[in-house]
Design goal:
four-stranded antiparallel β-sheet, about 325 residues, 2 domains, alpha+beta, peptidyl-prolyl cis-trans isomerase activity, Triger factor/SurA peptide-binding fold, single chain, globular, Chitinase A, domain 3, SurA_N
Length: about 325
């Protein structure tokens, strides 16, 4: 299984980083109140809206007689307009889209409506902030995902194709996820204060346990020439799999580059790291047997981590306030459901 863009509830393919899904869920709850309030406002005056529409239609009709071709053209237009269930700042959501969302995501109608309104609000903000993910960034993200799965880009794309995922559709979906991630980053970075030295030092002093890392890690290195054989070995540790070598190895954390070190530190004992491309046609994964020793990370080394934690701790409040402002400004009209 590879880490790719989610294709639906029944897909075997997982989310690109695990962040896209949680972000959508966080944003979704901030829109729900907007939906309820806007829907209530619409329901309180349906007759007035209907009367106004009838009046407009009467004015448009006049007393002139329509030709058969005019009747046919207007009938088609009525069918299109009649299919619009909701507008969000004049962006339409159709009954067909709502029903498709219900069916494909296996959710209730209200959940489908919430998700679609959220998509419109996000898309409008992405456009307003001029967020544009270029092809080279998409290529870099695909390469990163492939590497995380122990593959090169070509092998990764072939694996996607083998799972029935169209490469163009995959890139388009990945672009949307990256745009949403960038939107969230912009919202949080411009609405949270992480520059307070006092706040950061207070966090550091109150969470010293978070800034203590093992000095050494005892691992068992598993290596093979292909990911399929290696995966089989990882799933059957007590079985000797032909083509797979394994040996115990002691790793000094300080000797690793930060990205690899973080991978070892975040993998719990008695668990495997993700499969990595070791070069030379080899793939490797490490079984974390034991973490030894204890070293403290200095405040200066921990600054970026603390800034991220402060953003994380405040993000629910920030996003709630941000989307409440958007809700107040947005014109959400419920035409039919």
């Amino acid at each position: 299984m590879v880490l790719a863009v989610a294709q639906g509830a029944d897909s075997k393919v997982e989310s690109v980083t695990g962040q896209g899904g949680s972000s959508a869920k966080n944003l979704d709850k901030y829109v729900k109140e907007a939906l309820g309030k806007s829907k209530k406002e619409h329901q309180e005056s349906p007759k007035r809206s209907q009367d106004q529409e009838k009046g407009k239609q009467a004015n448009r009709s006049g007393s002139s007689k329509k030709t058969p071709s005019q009747d046919l053209a207007e009938g088609r237009a009525d069918n299109i307009v009649g299919g619009i269930a909701i507008t969000v700042n004049n962006d339409p959501i159709t009954l067909y889209q709502i029903e498709t969302q219900e069916r494909e995501q296996h959710v209730s109608r209200q959940q489908a409506i919430n998700a679609l309104i959220l998509q419109r609000i996000q898309a409008q903000e992405i456009k307003r902030l001029k967020i544009d993910i270029e092809d080279d960034k998409i290529d870099a993200e695909i390469e990163n995902i492939a590497r995380h799965n122990g593959m090169d880009t070509q092998d990764f794309m072939r694996t996607l194709a083998g799972e029935g995922i169209n490469p163009s559709a995959y890139r388009a979906q990945l672009k949307k996820q990256l745009e949403t991630r960038e939107l969230l980053r912009n919202i949080l970075l411009f609405n949270v204060n992480t520059n307070s030295e006092t706040k950061m030092r207070e966090y550091y002093n109150a969470h010293k346990d978070e800034f203590s890392i093992p000095s050494e890690i005892i691992t068992i290195r598993y290596m093979a020439k292909d990911t399929k054989t290696l995966t089989q070995a990882l799933e059957n540790r007590n079985v000797e799999i032909p083509g797979v070598t394994h040996n115990e190895e002691k790793i000094h954390v300080k000797s690793l580059n930060p990205q690899i070190a973080q991978m070892f530190l975040s993998t719990k004992e008695n668990m495997f790291t993700p499969i990595l491309n070791a070069g030379g046609g080899n793939y490797v994964s490490f079984f974390i047997k034991q973490k030894l020793g204890k070293e403290n990370v200095s405040f200066n080394q921990a600054r970026n981590f603390i800034a991220g934690k402060l953003i994380e701790d405040q993000q629910d409040k920030i996003l709630a306030e941000y989307y409440e402002k958007l809700r107040v400004k947005a014109k959400i009209k419920f035409l039919r459901q």
